[in-house]
Queue: 2 jobs
Job 1
Amino acid sequence: MQMYIPGNCIMLKDERIRTDSRFISGVKYQDSGDFEEAEKLYNELLEQYPDDFELRQRISYVLVHRGKAGDARRHLERAVEMQPDNAMARYNLGMVVELSGDQDAAMASLRQALALKPDFYYAQSAIASILLPYEHYMEILRRFHQWLRPSSYVEIGVEAGASMVLAEPPTVCIGIDPDPQIQCKFTAPTRIFSETSDEFFKNHDLREELGGRTIDLAFIDGLHHFDAALKDFINIERFSSKNTVVMIHDCIPLDKITSVRSRATVFWSGDTWKIIPVLKYFRPDLNIITIPTPPTGLSVVTNLDPESRVLGEKLDDIVEEYMLMDYDSLGQEKDDILNVIYDDWPSIQARIR
């Protein structure tokens, strides 16, 4: 998590500061990482301009980098007093308060920022990082690859390839995405299919594409709709074994606005989370855990059965029923409904194998 200072485009309350040599030099010191010199100059300016909102923001940023979170907090609290409706100031205050370990106060400030600006990606990401205490989901994916050393890996929703690149030789990899924008160099033998997952499973025999292998490890991170994720799971299970591990992203929704089907925010998980209660109800034989990893959780499903046809046969009825379910239905039982666990890594491994 980090503070956000809007650089040289800030609007200072007193435009005379902008031409003050101390301010000009302070910005240069700040941008170059010389926070000690920047602090000295900003303190001088604050003696002359004590009520300048943006100057308070700038010095707080510098103080955080100087290891003076307490002083930064006092400046930001003053900034919030001056502009109580400024979402960015409340966000920055939340970030600084969180550094002190006061998560309740940090969450209160971040939620106030979000109330002022509902589509506030920085605040949403910060709240998710506090609520979900594990390391980032990419690191969890890396752990799975290093632990399982899968002979085969299938990923649905490749985008730039940031998660796909975690696979290492000799893992044989298949990536599926209708519009891949690969920006990574893969080391494992990898093929990317530029089509939707529905088209892929209609047009290809996955076992054949994997050289006769079943799937060892799969990651579902495509269209953020539960019915799409469910169809992907059904198709993957057909090519699975008892030892297959399937990971599904975006299974812990942050709030109602970011978990709707029609995207209305930058931070967005869609309604993918519904796949967990679906699988729990219709496939109680599956082993399902959800790891609280930011930004939106990662579910892990094992004990697959390639012969099962329950989900496919009931698919239309399932979609019709669960389409009506929304975030409010989770209530206070969200962790239980989504099988969220707070175990350490060895305990997670024990649950899977």
Job 2
Amino acid sequence: MKSLVNALIECGLSPTQSRAYLSVLQLGSASASQIAEHSKVKRVTCYAALQDLINIDLVSSDDGDAVRMFSAKPLSQLETHFMSRAQNAINAYRRIQALIPDLKLLANKTIEHPEVEYLDGKEIIQNYLNTLPKENSIGCIFVSQHGHYELFLELLKRAAEQNIRPRAIVPNSIKMNLLTYLDHRVVPARIAHFPSTTLIMKDRVIIVFDDGNFLQAVVMCDKNMVDHYQMLFDLNWRMLSGEHLISAHLENGA
């Protein structure tokens, strides 16, 4: 039970909501008092959590009898809820991307322009990545295309030798063999299309663009830019549903 509670908390439910939800699942149909006793949560707190679960469509209530009874909605509602959260996270990411130019103008007086380097062509980009010092390991990645994976494969292998497993958010159109060296979350391609692959490292951000014929990369060596992109990634990572929920949704053909 504890592991299930922790898993639901990681996916976005509060501790009280997680315990109440699991108790409703186990009890079938029960009163708030029964659920509170089963979940070891104070009745008032439990009732508030049940109302939250009703609001997000995971639990229903029956007010027909003298005692209000609560029951869990089908588990497909749980998948739907977190898929919606995932879509909201991607939409927020897109809105932030669109705001970055205006935010840069607003911050021109207080933030120095980053050191920027442009790289043209796959061979030059590959050489740049392969010759980075060992301390420049990948922290996390937005992966946009299958073909970009081989560009930073050596970096991922180097990270694995240091027992580092970078986090990555990838659309489900990318083959699963990409995930050998990655702690990943898969986002359905229909709600997520990353226009570029973004590598977020300790002291730099590397953005790879691909027009189908030619590769280009922009390298920004600036702590402020690293912090901005790290914040965007962490926001998406926290809000996205677990990979097992998304995979189940896709396997059902939704």
